[in-house]
Design brief:
Elements: H1 2-24, E1 37-40, E2 45-65, E3 73-93, E4 96-106, E5 110-114, E6 127-131, E7 134-146, E8 149-167, E9 174-193, E10 198-215, E11 229-247, E12 253-256
Length: about 260
């Protein structure tokens, strides 16, 4: 019995000392959840895209010489759907994005004016038709990136074809002047990336293609103005939406947000 009491007392002492030692140990630190991360979109790289929208062309016709005509100006406005393709390359420096882009856009708008009551060189029954079949440009772009979003302005060289057709009252006869014009363009746009490679954009451009002068044969004019010269000044504006695919480029940065 004596030995049994000694063993029980020893076991109790060991148990108490072990509990006290465990109580003195530091507790386990709670698990820390990993910091959320997001992928910062990178706009650097080569890209291609397709676009569609609305465009308005203007052909401002004015009498030059030799007769003095009052009024002597008529503007032929024509508008319609325009669509095309584009390609370019962007470079991103922190939030600054610069790039170069070329585009080509077939179109099919035209406008005919009959019996120009406000432009008296033409006799009743005569008509003028102004039309265009394509428009494009080569532009530089400067913008600011806000992660997925990009706001930019642009400017550069534009080109387009314009056709002005005069239809007289005799026969009837017609005479067509075709011009492929080179001018300048300015505009602005916004793009949004919904994945590292795909983005959508909306863009506005105004283009001025300068002017050309030609002599209209006498059979298309009233007798008083036979042989006069006329100046055509061409311009256009457009709003287009596009879908863009960007190839490769440097890997996007992965940033932890704490």
């Amino acid at each position: 019995m004596h030995i049994r009491k000694i063993l029980l007392a020893s076991a109790a002492a060991i148990t108490l000392s072990t509990g006290a030692f465990a109580a003195d140990l530091p507790g386990r630190a709670p698990a820390i959840a990993p910091a959320p991360v997001f992928v910062a979109m990178n706009w650097t790289g080569f890209y291609v895209g397709a676009q569609v929208g609305w465009s308005e062309g203007r052909d401002r016709l004015s009498a030059v010489a030799p007769a003095i005509i009052v009024p002597n100006v008529a503007t032929l406005r024509s508008s319609g759907v325009i669509g095309g393709v584009y390609a370019g390359y962007n470079w991103q420096f922190n939030s600054l994005v610069v790039g170069l882009e070329a585009d080509i856009n077939p179109n099919s708008y035209g406008r005919t004016i009959n019996a120009l009551s406000n432009f008296n060189p033409f006799p009743a029954g005569a008509s003028i038709r102004s039309s265009s079949t394509f428009e494009g440009g080569l532009v530089g772009k400067v913008g600011v990136a806000f992660d997925n979003a990009l706001l930019y302005v642009l400017g550069g060289v534009s080109f387009a074809d314009f056709s002005t057709r005069y239809v007289g009252v005799a026969a009837p006869q017609s005479n067509t002047f075709n011009n492929t014009r080179v001018g300048w363009t300015i505009g602005a746009g916004a793009a949004y990336k919904f994945s590292p490679n795909w983005s959508a954009r909306i863009e506005y451009r105004y283009s001025d293609f300068g002017s050309s002068t030609h002599a209209v044969p006498g059979e298309f004019l009233s007798s008083t103005f036979a042989g006069d010269s006329f100046r055509n000044r061409y311009s256009s504006q457009r709003v287009m939406v596009g879908l863009t695919y960007q190839f490769g480029g440097p890997a996007a940065a992965v940033v932890a947000k704490y």
